[in-house]
Amino acid sequence: MITLRGVSHRFGGVHALAGIDLEVEEHEFVAVIGRSGCGKSTLLRLVAGLLTPSEGRIVVAGEEVTKPRRDVSVMFQRPALLPWRSVLANVLLPIEIFGLGGHRDRAHELLDLVGLGGFEKRLPHELSGGMQQRVSLCRSLIQSPRVMLMDEPFSALDAITRTELSEELQRIQLELPRAVVFVTHSIDEAVLLADRIVVLSPRPGRIHQIVDVGLPRPRALGQPELDEVSRKLRGLLSEVTA
Amino acid sequence: MKVVLPVLGLLAIIGLWWLATIVFGIDAFLVPSPADVVLAFLELPGYLLEQTLVTLWEAVAGFGLSIVVGVPIALLIVSSQVLERMFYPLLVALNAVPKVAIAPLVVVWFGFGIESKVLMVVLVCIFPIVISTASGMKSTPTELVELFRSLDAARHHEFFKLRLRHALPQIFVGLKVSITLAVIGAVIGEFVGASAGLGFVISQSGSSANTSQAFAAMALLAVISVGLFYGLGYAERKLVPWAEEHRTPA
Questions:
Q1: Predicted model pTM
Q2: I want to staple A7 with a disulfide (CB 3.0 to 4.6 A). Which of A56, A171, B194, B195 is the partner?
Q3: What integer pLDDT is reported at residue B249 of this predicted model?
């Protein structure tokens, strides 16, 4: 579904990413972890078509990425909701931008799916941070994306909400599987959610190692098997910064 | 409470003013007492209200025209760096020109009628509107702009569905500054050359030492300004209920 071949990126004089080769299969959940400043977000923005790579090729669904695509959705660190729009109108934003009609029933379904049924008419400032990020998730899903790109979507939330949302995301990925690239700096989140975990080394960002999680789903936080993978990742991350 | 406190403040000031005119025995043609001002109004209520409507109309028409012209100028400035660099300094220079100094020219060009007054109002109003609209649109959070980019949104979507809407609370700040200036602009125009309006009444009664009538006209100007200002505040609460300032008292 996603192919990166020899992708490098420079901002001015800064070499952010170098020689990235990566394949993400249809329905595969890939987490990308690494210290801050290792180019995780840059990688995501390149796949999203928000940035153009300095070198290399990125192919999504058989086509080279030159600009953002409608079947690729991006979810950001912050909910990025329009404060003047109701929850429902925020979820329907992509549909409106694409010039499509309808989808209201679908929007209601998605809001029900994340437990926000009944909040359709509220304004974002009336919701908690976790609820706002759930709305943002619905907005990503309404595009019926083949690829979902998530840039530390839960990092601005408190620990409890964060755990809740990662478990919810696991459930949604089981119900509506698609290719996901999930950038995070939380090892636990990565191990809970991902099929494979890409560990990036910093400056310039390179793939240090790719870890296959290979555990059956659904998984639960605190499961001993997960801890084993977490320990391995912690080891890899300390190698990377040394 | 919302109405009681301002009214109390007003009554206190009027009381002090009245007291001062009595205690210091000031002549009515220098500083009239509140009673003199009310009497002056009651002498010619129809005439004064008519002049009030003239000034109100000039201010509102000029204000409306400033929005109609100012917002598109702001859109152009935000949409193109070239245009911004070309015309922004000119706009600042235009604003720096003392409007009182160009008022006579404006009257020479546009005559003694309403046109010259409306133009004066536009000249004083447009700058705060352009600035607040442009800076509001530019301060749109990056994550929202990135969201629109990630949806491959057309430029007009980014401008009208996002940037302009996001700028609304800030635009209202500019509008509130402008609306009070609007009345001043109209009065400046009327001072220089007019045959109607409250500014005309003030300059007429000044030259005939009818200070009470001048005060009555000024009081009416104040009523217009306050009314327009709070009317705008009401519109703001209806149109931008999400704005921060309505949620947390400063």
A1: 0.82
A2: A56
A3: 47
